[in-house]
Structure formats: structure tokens, C-alpha cells
């Protein structure tokens, strides 16, 4: 889960995948994909006010991400400020500062294979070359195929700073099967069960709202049978050409279902169950594509070890990952040899020191320590961060997130006044809030004077509390 705090130091006034706290002050926003941990604050009152009241503040994303946001009713207030950037060509984006002057930055979107619409952002300009990966899975060899990473003569571009998804940066996840291998295992499990009896049906249990579409596409293509999804999900998919062909909103025209999100009570082999989408009892085989369970102790590289069957249950876990394995991540970093690296995810059961250590290990490509990149870790989201769970991306989660986000700064103030600030806070944070407050000082005749003054006072209060708690 991402703990990237949104600000890209090298690009003043830009925030990516985080829309709360001091990010409110940015002028240019980027969204890499539609998972809750990358959308913190996107629906908060602060952020929506900022979009409404500042004419030149925009949110940039890929076409499919924009489509998903427009299909989900909960993001309607953001839609008028979305600007779609195309894949495959570089675009010039004007980044405004608070005095109205602009800096031109070239932005390229690179598909990440993580979920529909997910992209990396490559920024090129006077500040150098910055790559923000968002969540991604590129297999070994993929990175060499993207021309955006290469000069015209084919040599690899110098990346000054890499902000990277380190979800599986752990020796426990040395490798994962290729997507093709995972799909083939999954299709065999489906075919064998459907052939075993006429009452047999399949339920594909997905871990997150978006991220299993490649599975649906592969299954539909290989088995010639669409996957039933619920109406809400179908509304999103029906305008994405390649996914639309793989899914259906008719529960009676298929034996493969993924229509009830997240949980399904386990069933033993012989028990029949009634799918909520239709009045017919079936014997269900549940297939759960997932990666977390498949540590190096479980998955040894063989096809057999990429499947786990639960005892006495018709439940199969198939190793399928939307994030790079340790080996893939190592290959990616060694290929690009960035000058600086910032980890954006703290892997499960790991501390900052462990991540730094592993990143140092995968960054050995020169002869001496002078070739080593500078390595940092994103600030861990703590008390003022919004806890979001990719696996429970639901309306309830979003509601909670919105409430938390809209009151996020008040939480900071309250906690700070009690002397309870998380240890990660430093004088720098207080300084950022103070500078923001300074810049928000309304000028005479400013139509947004009241809003600016209110936010300004709040930020000044936060700065004062932070100073008090740090000293
Ligand atoms: Zn994600
Ligand atoms: Zn169904």
C-alpha cells in the first residue's frame, strides 16, 4: 500500500496520487490509477474547493482512469477539472506557480500492467528527468521495449530520480510466475471443473475492485465464455473495448462468475450453493488470484507450486501478481540505473532500514560507492494519514476516507496541541505549512479571499503546533 506523500520535491507545485494535507497547495495534480491508496483526499472538501476556485488547477490522468472516475458517481465533482494525457506520445504540461508564471514540463505516460488505466509518469524538463512508477508490474525484458526510456540512438535515458513501487521488495518474493503461466493454470482449473458436472460453476474471487481484468480477458479468450460481473462494474467496463468483450451483465449466459465482490463463504466440494445473481443451485469452485501467499517458500518456480488448494474446500489460490516480484524490481532498477531512488511502499513486516538495505543491494552497478544512487523512503502514513485498504475499496471506505480527509488538518491540529505528533514530523513540515499560509495571503479584491483566509489561518495554526511539538 502506497505511503507516498504526494509531493515531488524536484517539481514544485506538483502532487501525484495524494490530494490531502500540504498537497492542497499544489497547482498541478496527477493520478496514476484508481486504487484507494493512490486517491487519498481526492474527494475531500479542501481539494474540491481548490479545483473549483482555481481556474488553472487540473488533474491529469490516462483516458481509462478518467473513464473509471466518470463511471463512478462518487467522483462527479472532480470531472470538470480532469485533463486526459494520451499514451504513446509525450505531452507538454504547463506547471503554474503561485505568481502565475509557468514552467513547461514534458510528460510521458507509460502503461504499468497493474490495473486498467494504470500508468507511470515520466517528467522531463529543466529539473531533470523524474520517473514516478505508481503501482506496476513489468516483467524482465518489458522495460527495454519502451522507447520513452531510451534516447533516439537506443541508449537508456538518465533518470535523475525514480519514485518506485516497492510492494514486493522482499527476499520472500524472489519471483512470480509470468502472467501467461498464471492464466494457463487458472484456465485449466476452470475447464476441469466445468467438465466434471453440469451443475458445476466457477466463482473468481478478486482481491480489489480493479486489477483482475487481465484474468477475465484471458479466460474469455481461451475458453470462449464471458465472466458475469455486477451491474456497477459492468457500467465501468462496457466502454473499455478490450474488457467489454470479456464480461457480461447477464448471469444466465455463462458459468463463470465474479459478480459478488470480495468475499464468498467457503463451500466444501459436495455442497451446492445458490449464486445471488440467479435462482439455480450450483456446485462452486472458487478461484482466488493472489500473490501475498506465494512467498519463495511456497512458490519454487514450478507450475504446481503456483496453485494452493484449501483443505476440504473447493477453493484454489493461484499465484497472480499485479506488482513486480523482487527479481523483476531488481531488473527494472538495474536497467534504469537512476541517480536517486525513493521507495513509495513499505512492504509488509518491513521497517525503513530493511528497505534501504535491499535497495542498496539492488543498486550495485558501478565500481565504487560514488556510483550508488541516493536512496530514501517515503514518509510512512501515520496519524494524519488516511488508512485505506485496497482490498476494501468500497463506498463505505470512500465515505470514511472523505470524512477523514476533509477533517485531516483538524486532526493534525488537535494531535499537535496535545503534543502527540508522529515522530516523522520535522521542522521542515512546519516550514511548508508556514510558506503555504504566507502564499495564501489574499490580495485586495481577490474573489476567493474568504476561503484563502480560512485555509491560511488553519495552516498557520498547524505550523505553530508542529513547531511546538518538534522543539
Ligand atoms: Zn494499485
Ligand atoms: Zn453471477
From TrEMBL:
Taxon lineage: Eukaryota, Metazoa, Ecdysozoa, Arthropoda, Hexapoda
UniProt xrefs under SUPFAM superfamilies: Metallo-hydrolase/oxidoreductase
GO cellular component: nucleus
GO BP field: DNA recombination; double-strand break repair via nonhomologous end joining; interstrand cross-link repair; telomere maintenance
Entry GO MF terms: 5'-3' DNA exonuclease activity; damaged DNA binding; endonuclease activity
PANTHER family tied to this protein: DNA CROSS-LINK REPAIR PROTEIN PSO2/SNM1-RELATED, PROTEIN ARTEMIS
Protein name: Protein artemis
Family, per entry: Belongs to the DNA repair metallo-beta-lactamase (DRMBL) family.
InterPro entries found in the cross-reference section: DRMBL (IPR011084), RibonucZ/Hydroxyglut_hydro (IPR036866)
Domain DNA repair metallo-beta-lactamase positions: 242-348
Keyword field: DNA damage, DNA recombination, DNA repair, Endonuclease, Exonuclease, Hydrolase, Nuclease, Nucleus
Cited Pfam families: Anti-Pycsar_Apyc1 (PF23023), DRMBL (PF07522)
Presence of keyword Mitochondrion: no
Organism this protein belongs to: Zootermopsis nevadensis (Dampwood termite)
Subcellular location: Nucleus
Amino acid at each position: 500500500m502506497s505511503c507516498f506523500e504526494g509531493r515531488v520535491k524536484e517539481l514544485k507545485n506538483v502532487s501525484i496520487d495524494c490530494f490531502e494535507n500540504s498537497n492542497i497547495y499544489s497547482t498541478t495534480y496527477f493520478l496514476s490509477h484508481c486504487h484507494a491508496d493512490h486517491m487519498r483526499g481526492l474527494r475531500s472538501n479542501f481539494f474540491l474547493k481548490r479545483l473549483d476556485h482555481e481556474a488553472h488547477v487540473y488533474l491529469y490522468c490516462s483516458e481509462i482512469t478518467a473513464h473509471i472516475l466518470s463511471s463512478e458517481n462518487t467522483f462527479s465533482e472532480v470531472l470538470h477539472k480532469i485533463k486526459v494525457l494520451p499514451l504513446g506520445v509525450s505531452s507538454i504540461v504547463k506547471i503554474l506557480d503561485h505568481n502565475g508564471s509557468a514552467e513547461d514540463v514534458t510528460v510521458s505516460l507509460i502503461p504499468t500492467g497493474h490495473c486498467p488505466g494504470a500508468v507511470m509518469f515520466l517528467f522531463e524538463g529543466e529539473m531533470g528527468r523524474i520517473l514516478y512508477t505508481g503501482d506496476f508490474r513489468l516483467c524482465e525484458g518489458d522495460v527495454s521495449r519502451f522507447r520513452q526510456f531510451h534516447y533516439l540512438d537506443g541508449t537508456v535515458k538518465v533518470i535523475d530520480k525514480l519514485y518506485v513501487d516497492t510492494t514486493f521488495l522482499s527476499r520472500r518474493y524472489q519471483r512470480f510466475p509470468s502472467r501467461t503461466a498464471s492464466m494457463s493454470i487458472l484456465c485449466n482449473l476452470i475447464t476441469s471443473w466445468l467438465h466434471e458436472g453440469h451443475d458445476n460453476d466457477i466463482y473468481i474471487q478478486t482481491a480489489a475492485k480493479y486489477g483482475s481484468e487481465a484474468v477475465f480477458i484471458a479466460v474469455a479468450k481461451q475458453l470462449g465464455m464471458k465472466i458475469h460481473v455486477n451491474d456497477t462494474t459492468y457500467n465501468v467496463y462496457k466502454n473499455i473495448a478490450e474488457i467489454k468483450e470479456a464480461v457480461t451483465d447477464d448471469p444466465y449466459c455463462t458459468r463463470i462468475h465474479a459478480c459478488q465482490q470480495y468475499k464468498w463463504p467457503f463451500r466444501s466440494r459436495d455442497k451446492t450453493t445458490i449464486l445471488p445473481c440467479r435462482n439455480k443451485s450450483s456446485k462452486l469452485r472458487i478461484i482466488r488470484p493472489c500473490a501475498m501467499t506465494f512467498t519463495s517458500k511456497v512458490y519454487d518456480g514450478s507450475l504446481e507450486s503456483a496453485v494452493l488448494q484449501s483443505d476440504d474446500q473447493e477453493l484454489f489460490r493461484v499465484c497472480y501478481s499485479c506488482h513486480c516480484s523482487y527479481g523483476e524490481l531488481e531488473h527494472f532498477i538495474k536497467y534504469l540505473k537512476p541517480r536517486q531512488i525513493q521507495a513509495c511502499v513499505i512492504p509488509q513486516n518491513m521497517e525503513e532500514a530493511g528497505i534501504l538495505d535491499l535497495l542498496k543491494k539492488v543498486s550495485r552497478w558501478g565500481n565504487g560507492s560514488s556510483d550508488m544512487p541516493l536512496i530514501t523512503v517515503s514518509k510512512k502514513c501515520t496519524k494524519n494519514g488516511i488508512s485505506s485498504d485496497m482490498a476494501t475499496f468500497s463506498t463505505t471506505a470512500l465515505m470514511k476516507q472523505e470524512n477523514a480527509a476533509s477533517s485531516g488538518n483538524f486532526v493534525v491540529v488537535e494531535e499537535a496541541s496535545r503534543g502527540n505528533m508522529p515522530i516523522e514530523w520535522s521542522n521542515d513540515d512546519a516550514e511548508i505549512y508556514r510558506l503555504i499560509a504566507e502564499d495564501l495571503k489574499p490580495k485586495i479584491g481577490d474573489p476567493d479571499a474568504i476561503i484563502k483566509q480560512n485555509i491560511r489561518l488553519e495552516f498557520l495554526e498547524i505550523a505553530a503546533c508542529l513547531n511546538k511539538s518538534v522543539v
